[in-house]
Each structure stands twice: as C-alpha cells, then as structure tokens.
Predict the 3D structure of the following.
Amino acid sequence: MSPTRTDFFQGVRDCLPIVAAAAPFGMLFGALAVDNGLTVGEAVLMSATVFAGASQMVGLEMFGAEIAPWIIILSVFAVNFRHVLYSAALGRRMGLMPGWKKALAFFFLTDPQYAASEARADRKMPVTLTWYMGMALPVYVFWVAEAWVGALFGSLITDPAALGIDFLLPIYFLGLVMGFRARPNWLPVVIVSGLGSILGFYTVGSPWHVSLGALAGVVAAMLLPLPGPDAKGRMP
Amino acid sequence: MNELFLGLPVNVWTIVGAAIVTYAARFGGHLVLSRFKRIPPRVDAALNAVPAAVLATLVAPAAVNSGPAEAITLAVCLVIGFRLPMMGMFAIGWALIVALRGAGL
C-alpha cells in the first residue's frame, strides 16, 4: 500500500476501540434527546455539529429544563473549554500542516482523538491529516448514526423512570468525573465544586449552581499548591 | 422551547450556537495559546480543573436532591468507579437504579 493509504488505515485501526466504547453513549444521547424534547432531526444535528459527548449531554439536561438558550450555549462552552488546551498542544504536533488542514482537523478534536494523536507523536510517527482523518471519520460517522438510531428508539420508550433512563446522565457524569482523577488536585477540586453546587442549588437556584460550583472548583485549583512537575506537564 | 426564530426552531439556533462555541474552543486554543512559549502554571492548573469541576456540579445536587435510591446508586458508583472502567460502572449503576426503584426506594 502507498504510505498515504497505510496512514489512513492505521488511523482506522486506532479508532476501533473508541467506536465500540462510544456506541452506547451515542445511542443514549439520541434517546435522551427525544426524552428531553428535541426532535429526531435536532438530535442528529447536535451530534453532527457539536460532536462532543459530555457537552451534548449537559445541553440535553438543560433543553429538558427549558433554560434560556444563551445559558445552554455557555454551559456547553464551559464543558468543552478543555479543548483549548488540546488544540494548543496538538497544533505543535501538526507543525507542517497548512492552516486549512488544521482548521478541518480541529473540528474532530475529541478527547480520544487528542489522546491518540499525542500517543502517535510520542512514537515518533507523523500526525498527518490522512492518519488523523482515518481515526476521526469512523468515530464521527458512527456517532451521528447512533444519535439517529437512539432517537428513533428513544421515542418508543413511554416510561423512562421505570427503566432508570432519567437518571443515567448523573451516573454518566460521575463516570466522567472519575475519569479525570489522575489530574493534580482532583479530589479537592471535585469536593469544592460539588459542595459549591449544592450550596448554590439551595440558595441561588438552578441553573446557576453549575457555574457557581464550577467557578469555586477552578478557583480552588488555582489556589492549591501545585503537586510536583506533573501539574505543568501538559504543554509540550 | 419550540417557538420559531427567523423561521427555525429556537432549539436549532441553540444547537448551532453550541457548535460554534465548541469549534471556537477546538481551534482557538491553537490560535491564541500557541503564541506563548508556555502557560503560567496557575493558569494551567485552573484550565486542567475545568472539566472535573463542571461535571461535579451536575452530579452533586442529584445525589442530595433526588431520593434514597438515587443517592445510594451514586455512592456505590463512586466507590466502584475507582476500580472499574467507565462502562462497567455505568452498567452497574443503571442496574442498581432500576433495582432500587423497583424495590420501592
């Protein structure tokens, strides 16, 4: 095979575990979207244009609560803000790629895409657009298709509470929180944000408890002592 | 929120807005931060904390505000989450909430 085709299929091979792991959540998103008042088309549109699982779920919960659009958009931005760091770090790995290729690649910059790109660069293999898209395109195509399938089946579910579906988002979010536990000062940040949000929930009220709690956690992260060189190890 | 705005449902505009800010985060980091040789450690620590901080605010009120079945489920998931990968924790949590609600909690 030509180097280009080899690159592409290396990317496809690298993405297979991601496609499998994301599949239940892709469909869950579609089902919950319909449960929270989106149409099937809107669910597919969101997966196709936002393409960021956790923030899509956050958005859904707010669509369900009839919250002002700008607050939903701000919350999605808050959840996706970590991509600023991914993009800054990965831009250097793509050194020779022309600007338009970078602009295309950054649309597909999910958490696993970032992790896999860093891993490939660590192995001294070039992060080419061909490899990158070999990895990204299957993930994207399946993610959008799963939203559609999930939304179709979601509208058939008449009693979500009996099946526990209305409570899957907090469990999913807890799983994501746990996934960040290797980060410096993870536990104090989570405790401060959690308590802050509970306090905000009972004093100021929803949805402000989200921003207030998150702000408390981020301020705590800034003020806490930085544990070791790990704390600044994210930028190459 | 199914009112129309400029001929399209408000939900569609909200989704488009969410897509724009997400892309801005994905491209903006490269555009802005690549001009700096390195990020100040305190700023980096704050940025690192953002996802866990935001997501924790979505879990904590649900744990204290929903009921015993929900609180027990989240407590169990928290404990097993240290040992099991995401999918295993999620599956057990799902089974547990259905079982506890079925038991009348």
Remarks:
- Chain B has two domains: 1-37, 52-105.
